[in-house]
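notes to self, project folder thing:

trying the whole complex as one job this time. last attempt i did each chain seperately and stitching them together was a nightmare. two parts in total, labels are on each line so i dont mix them up again. if this works i'll redo the older ones the same way
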Amino acid sequence: MPAPSPERLPAVWLRDNCPCADCRDPRNGQKLFQIVDLPRDLAVGEVRQAADGAGTEVIWSPDGHRSVYAHEWLAEHEPGVSGGTGDGRTEADKTLWRAADLAGALPEATWAAYESEPATRARVLDAVLRYGFALLRDVPRREGQVLDVARTFGFVRETNYGKLFEVRVEPDPNNLAFTGARITPHTDNPYRDPVPTLQLLHCLTNAAAGGDSGLVDGFQAAALLRDEDQAAFATLTRTPVPFRFDDAGTALAADRPLIDVDPLGRVREVRFNNRSIGTLRLPAADLDAFYLAYRTFAEILLRPGLQLDFRLTPGDCLIFDNVRLLHARTAFSESGARHLQGTYADMDGLASTLAVLRREQAAAEDGPLDELAALFAGEGAGEYLGEEVTMAQHMLQAGALAEAAGAPDHLVAAAVLHDIGHFHGPLHGTDLMDGKDNRHSHTGADRLAPWFGPEVTEPVRLHVAAKRYLCAVEPAYLDALSEASVFTLEVQGGPMSPEEVAEFEANPYAEDGVALRRWDDRAKDAAAATPDFAHFRPLLAALLRTRRG
Amino acid sequence: MPAPSPERLPAVWLRDNCPCADCRDPRNGQKLFQIVDLPRDLAVGEVRQAADGAGTEVIWSPDGHRSVYAHEWLAEHEPGVSGGTGDGRTEADKTLWRAADLAGALPEATWAAYESEPATRARVLDAVLRYGFALLRDVPRREGQVLDVARTFGFVRETNYGKLFEVRVEPDPNNLAFTGARITPHTDNPYRDPVPTLQLLHCLTNAAAGGDSGLVDGFQAAALLRDEDQAAFATLTRTPVPFRFDDAGTALAADRPLIDVDPLGRVREVRFNNRSIGTLRLPAADLDAFYLAYRTFAEILLRPGLQLDFRLTPGDCLIFDNVRLLHARTAFSESGARHLQGTYADMDGLASTLAVLRREQAAAEDGPLDELAALFAGEGAGEYLGEEVTMAQHMLQAGALAEAAGAPDHLVAAAVLHDIGHFHGPLHGTDLMDGKDNRHSHTGADRLAPWFGPEVTEPVRLHVAAKRYLCAVEPAYLDALSEASVFTLEVQGGPMSPEEVAEFEANPYAEDGVALRRWDDRAKDAAAATPDFAHFRPLLAALLRTRRG
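result (full assembly):
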């Protein structure tokens, strides 16, 4: 993408984004000037290439200020070109769902995996942002544990119910939640402003008959309402509803619409709680319109296809978006033991934790990929065992052949990386052409193992054995080998014996090793167009161990 | 106000407000039905007076449900009749201000008064809701004290800055707040969603040159913008602005407009922070419009007349609305000691605490006023020392005479209550007509003292002495006394001696006592129209000790 020319960009916007140390504190990235500090008649004066060639330099008129914008930044932020996903809080950034979309495939993880694997933690937090919830299993059934769960991604929001609330039958309940009654789908605390955006429920005991859980995607329901009855949708976005809660020590009030949209009209919050709607004060005609729309929305929310039903079992901890998902529970026998502990928290902390995890993950990926890129660019430019291509060209051609053959990503990766064992640098090898078997296939596979799984490393490990295998089972194969390959075949042990053939064929990665070998053999064409390492980088990144779990 | 007839009211709205025990949990007031549980063709069937006469009974068609609505409730909640102030969060419920409105009259209280006097606490919290801030003085200069201040009215909102943050120069600051730089008016944490709605800053040390504080009413500025440039106002309410904050462990993002309006178009939140606005992604024309509007708003915010300047001195704790007020500070010498501790909290908890305080205050007022009303209705209906009026009539007539004379409220109250010492019940007295001075003036004053100040109790205490005084200094006065009064004069000690006269005149309440005495003497007219106790109740309520402080 070419960088747009600064003269074509809105001047104040461009200047407001000046990255120089006078405009932004280098310690924390905060802006150091105010908008009124900029000249009223600001304009781009002079434009030239920055000294380092990587950016565009702007000299501003009339104040002579100098800004340097990286080409990459200019290209990425060109006004009007869609980009960025906003803050991730509106329906635009969510995956809306109905029960059937997730039944039997709840976004979940064990507590052990969540605690120990950053990738699992990222997957769980992403599910809360994307689907509105995630379920942690086998969370220690310890009182107060729910607070520790919340603290893994954010901050507990204390309310009149305490830092932690008990969901069980109470003798003199101040809320229906603390009885055995059925609770229809609702969001919590709509009478609070700001409403807690996340809720956690940790199941300690659930031996009661009944007391099953349900979740409804309120954004999905709002979208259906908008499709089916636009006027009702508009009414619910425009009518502040008085939510109220009173007990001995509390008198909470918030007047907010059932469906809250952002300035662009996108759904960003849903509040729905039949229990706590107070008395609306509107002209009679508006009351009629509101109640009609409210009923229509309630009917959609109660459609059987929308509610995802499941049962929290002891050790489960549900984390959910309290401004999007409605939660419900069936009635239960007040005699059976049922005990959940809950807490509230906020989405911004969760989103921040996820963003930092991803940043760390990207940094962790950049390490190995930068190292591989350096090897391809450095030693890789060297001679390849007497062939007419460099080592890097050879490996990249093997990858290109695998790609052209429609091979799965892990096999393309294995092809690109198969001779990594030849490289020195961090991947010390020895010189095969000196007549010693450096077992470069094993060295390479072992060096790749910290970064990639066996679906990548094992075909690499087998690609030398595959040559010996093919020589044993395909007489024509031996005849077609290059001169250098024939020489190394002897060093490597010659064609396999029948016992070795049987053993090789028993290896689950044998077929992949053979496929890799055939690309390996053809990847020595000095005339072939060869993709560069950057071409394969995203594919390699996606296979890194940090992405899994 | 007459109650509207149920047939004229929107049926679903009325039914949704049914107060019966099947519709609302009597334990907690929560609604027990869902809107979809109501018949689609709901209509008022039959209407009749409720058995107790205080309400209207509705029999609903077609389901035969029975609701009883108090006349008072129907009159108060009539649709379309303005009533209720909503949740108090929009500009409609605020007192907008400029610096001159509050300079020298900051809403403030000492920590000791705030802690010990519920009325002072209510006044301070009300100021935060109404003006957007209040200042507590002489708060103990103890580290962590700011958290205790927050906990007097709500819950601390923990953030990436911790439960508590230190505002002082830090060696490697992640925020400009932790340097000595000037900070222009801004709201905090706009990159958080939900943004903390309250901030507290507690000054422990401020010996640096500079470092003064300023506050700007962002709602006032928004209102000015709307008046002066409606298009700019509309642009700022419609443009989500990407606020961003990143440091080693945090990556916060919120896309929210600078001016947030409720569905009725009323300003409800302002976010303004030049330091943390990221890169806007809009078409070029929209960027130009936004930057023009942003600059115009910034210029208004920086008008000198708007910013209220003051200096936090050690022991001061500022509580302010972080979604309305912008705060600023002048630069200060990094060598001088300046140390503030801050925390965030939320408005909903503060508003709830204030509402509960007011409820308790009303209950505290209802106690004495209900007791007085019962005395007037009970014993007050009895004979008044041989006069032709009852005791209650006599006292109420005295009050009416004071009122007609334009007397100040405290003196009207004293007139209404002056013979309270005659009552038995909780105010045990003895029978003056038995020939003993029951010192009913002193008894009455002493009994009133827990509820009312000396401006009410002391004229009551002096009203018997005033008779003896007037008999001594006004010969015509004695002649005009009623037969019963002449009899009791002797029991009470006869006309004053010259020494007693001098002593009486030295009493600061003597004049009020004499005025009261003259109404007392005239308030024995069996033919006069007499207001009831309820007429004086609001006046009495306003004078209760619970309202002062």
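what i see at first glance: The radius of gyration of chain B is 31 Å.
need to look closer tmrw
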